[in-house]
Amino acid sequence: MAFNNIQPDAIDLFCGAGGLSLGLENAGIHVRLGIEISQTAATTYTSNLPGQVVIEDIKAVSVNDVLQKLQKKCGELFLLAGCPPCQTFSSLQKDNTAEDERNNLIFEYTRLVKGLKPLFIQLENVPGLKNGRGKKIFKKAVNELKQWYQLDYGILNCADYGIPQTRRRLVMHGIRNDIFELFHTADENFKVLLPPTTHTSDTAHNPSLLPWVTAGTAFINLPPVVAGAPAPNGFPNHETSGLTNINIQRIQHIRANGGNRTCLPEHLQLPCHQNEHLGYTDVYGIMDPALPAPTMTGGCITYSKGRYGHPYEDRAITVREAARLQSFPDTFVFYGSRGQTALQVGNAVPPLLAEASGKYFLNLLNQLKQLP
What we know:
By secondary structure, this protein is α/β, with parallel strands linked by helices. It contains 11 helices and 9 strands.
């Protein structure tokens, strides 16, 4: 293969609204094709990104179809990346069943890897795929991929990559065996690595890294929003649902007396929270602007579903604020209902995390072109 002619292009499987693709594009990798079954998420993707989208069940996408669309042969693709649906493996998911068909979508990823044989592969998912409910499935997928790829994978904290959120994600990098051998021949200590961190909470021990970015960055230079009112002109996705009077009392009391609902007086507590088992204390909580935000989920704009109360205003955070906490720029507009856009943001790969992986693979390509 003539490595000097390799184009840094990629496919994004289960691309959703496009967080992974945006990060790769920002790193300098051109995403030629996205595959997504949700029409509303695909609308957001195509409205913000230049890549094509195949709107259909990935099980119906053939290797030959993909190669035809890309006008490539097997083995010529630079990067195949993806984030198979992960809700059934999440620690927040209560109704997980072994029969859920989404559990096996990772094997659609491995099927296309096997058929396309790209130089490099990347996968992102919830930690539970590796060490929780999905570990047997993940082990099987890894064993399949190890036939063709050298792998490294681990649980990364998004805050370590300049994202104002302590979102922990499973990230996997892979290098095709024949490409790995070229690197290994030149340097016997060569290894597959995960993207290096850029930020830390402890700069004293590593002054070369920047401090964590706090959640307060999401609220800078955004106009105030009244819960239930339309988004201000020029700020798409910057709106949120109204609150009941008792929830307004809760949010005001928590803001004055602490960050979560354990400080609420009895008359403001829910009956199910008045016993010894308090459950998730972040529910009805207020976001601390001095710390990275908690994990954004599909319920991130609902006050009762987590620590999603606005730190200064009597409302939950907006989709635009959640998107900022995921490292999306304000120019990235989400399409669909408020619930659909919140789901797109909560399910997205943070662009800055994807960009870190993209830069890693581009660096490998540059090294590859310099090998004898």
